[in-house]
Amino acid sequence: MATGYLTLQTRTAHDAVPLAGAKITVFDNWNNILYTLTTDESGETGSVALDTLDKRFSQDPGFTGTPYFTYHVLAEAAGFQPLFVSDIPIFDGETATLPLTLTPLQPGARSAAPEKISIGAPAVTLPLTRIQDGRLYEPSRVLRQVVIPNPITVHLGAPASAASNVQVSFPDYVKNVASSEIYPTWPASALTANIYAIITFALNRVYTEWYRARGYDFDITNSPAYDQYFVYGRPIYSSISEIVDRIFNEYVRRAGQEAPYFTSFCNGTTATCQGLSQWGTVTLANQGLSPLQILRSYYPNDIEIAETNIITGVLSSYPGTLLKTGSSGLDVQTIQTYLNRIRRNYPAIPAITDETGVFGNSTKAAVTKFQQVFSLVPDGIVGKATWYKISSLYTAVTRLAELDSEGTTLGIGTVPPNVILRRGSRGQDVITLQYLLDLISEYYPTIPAPVQDGIFGGGTRSSVIAFQQAMQLAADGIVGPLTWQRLYATYQSISQNVPSSGSFAYTVQSGDTLWQLSRRYGTTVDAIKQLNGLTSDLILVGQVLKIPSR
Questions:
Q1: Domain 2-120, what fold?
Q2: Could you give phi then psi for residue 224, rounded to 5 degrees?
Q3: Who's near 472: CB < 8 A, 6+ residues apart?
Q4: Do 155 and 222 form a contact (C-beta atoms < 8 A)?
Q5: Phi and psi of 148, rounded to 5°?
Q6: Which of 75, 248, 442, 511 gives 20 to 30 Å between its CA and that of 150?
Q7: Residue 429 contacts by C-beta under 8 Å, 6 or more apart in sequence?
Q8: Distance, CA of 297 to CA of 134 (rounded, Å)
């Protein structure tokens, strides 16, 4: 018997808001409760140990059984729809980090049946035929440069299906696909070669605008027959995560060409193809081949690894050099500014007290804690993975704060407008509609955010239809009384159930009395005392403020 590990994270709004105090229950396949956990102020539990099979079984292409044990998780948080994730594979020596993205309860609901996600077996075990049609000839429509789409839009079904779309960061997309396609216990060279193929395949779809040029509103599908396997809500394995963090902006191309090569692949056992054999990479890695040598065994000999630093949705590009103790300058100041803002939402990150622009001990401590919270290598050094994660999270928390402020400015009340909106409509009511959809999209992954321009165009219609589908309304793209009512009710539900951006809750104990006190980060103990008219001393123990009885 071997041991694997599982870490749970409960967050919402693209990780901008951690959900502390969520109840997490871990079950085995016989529905026995193995662990009952509570998330901390960062929305995370510690790792728990789980039995599994020895890794040698997942490294043997001839093994016909299931080379791992599976477990199930139920996540519950007040004001949010429960989430049940089943069939989570646990591998020997691997830490699986499971992101539990909870959505606010539907309007008027006090409880709800759990949303269900099934993870299941990696694609490498499936006897599927991959179509993976690609640009094997000169494409008719391409981007001018190789760009990392951040986020990337994934269609959760075959290309022509009516499935929903989700948007995820590009590194998270690659980690998900690699965790869904192959076994994380494979040799590092095999994992790296497969991850290069996964990255390059996705960038080829984006570069050639394979789907968007055909009128679709997504970049790639999650179908392993057409593209590569993506399971929304699945756990990510530590060995895969660390490799992706190093190479997520690197890709395969032929010498002298800019375009990402079309890196088709199959499992190489139950299905064969002209591209990379996933199981074959294990054999070659065991023979001592490097990732590039493995790739050249399946693709042309003149392929090379290239890098792009053009990443959409990022406020500032990675400076190209590591930031660490002793570094100084504007880039250090940028990281300090971002981290000090992020810690309003994640108070476990310690305050930075170093001189502005100087990377000292407190900056290192803040970086290290950030890395621990977001499953990065906790070395206290800002490399490209840490830089882009800090930048993307800063964007998420500030965007949420801006949306909160904008709602106040617009004066969103409780009574919806008495007007019907459809494609072609314009004016203030359309701005209100677009704002509501924009805010709601932060908490409902399948609803895209429209541009707030006061014009009801195709993007706004797509957002309305996605909202109607999520709320089980007639998906006609027209905003009538029922859609208006549900928009306002959902907005109010988010306001009531989601912790305020940049705040966290203390449990305050006075004698036998307990109550919850939530205030903006930065409130001092003295201010809390004054707010509650208290004169006795407060003792902060973790997140519990103990007030001696008077």
A1: Immunoglobulin-like (2.60.40)
A2: -70, -15
A3: none
A4: yes
A5: -80, 115
A6: 75
A7: 417, 419, 421
A8: 20
Locate 137 and state its tokens.
Answer: 């000839």
Q: E-assigned strands of 408-512?
A: 503-510
> Is the per-residue pLDDT at 8 higher than 90?
yes
Side chain identity at 356, as an amino acid letter? Answer: T
Residue 9 in contact with residue 98, Cβ under 8 Å? yes
**Hey, what are 158's tokens?**
């075959």
H/E stretch holding 71: strand 69-76
Residues 6+ apart with CB under 8 A from 72: 26, 27, 28, 29, 31, 84, 85, 86, 87, 88
Q: Are 24 and 37 in contact (CB under 8 A)?
A: yes
Query: Is pLDDT above 80 for 16?
Result: yes
Count of Cβ atoms closer than 10 Å to residue 298 Cβ: 21
DSSP 167: E
Closest CA to 443 of 42, 103, 10: 103
User: How far is it, in rounded angstroms, from Cα 183 to Cα 66?
Assistant: 11
In sequence order, which residues have a C-beta less than 8 Å from that of residue 82 and are 6 or more positions away? 74, 75, 76, 102, 112, 113, 114, 115
The reply to whether domains 2-120 and 411-497 share a CATH topology is no
- Locate the domains of the chain by residue range: 2-120, 152-307, 330-403, 411-497, 503-547
Rounded distance between C-alpha atoms, residue 162 and residue 269, angstroms: 32
- Torsion angle in degrees (nearest 10) through CA of 219, 225, 228, 232: 80
pLDDT at 106 over 90: no
The arrangement of secondary structure in 330-403, i.e. its CATH architecture, is Orthogonal Bundle (1.10)
* Helix (H) / strand (E) containing 48: strand 48-52
CB atoms within 10 A of CB 526: 10
Q: Is the entire prediction scored with pTM above 0.70?
A: yes
pLDDT at 17 over 80: yes
Split at pLDDT 50, 70, 90, the class of 126 is: confident
Q: What is the CATH number of domain 411-497?
A: 1.10.101.10
Average pLDDT over residues 173-192: 98
**Cis status, amide bond into 122, omega within 30 of 0:** no
Q: At what angle do helices 188-207 and 278-286 cross, to 10 degrees?
A: 140
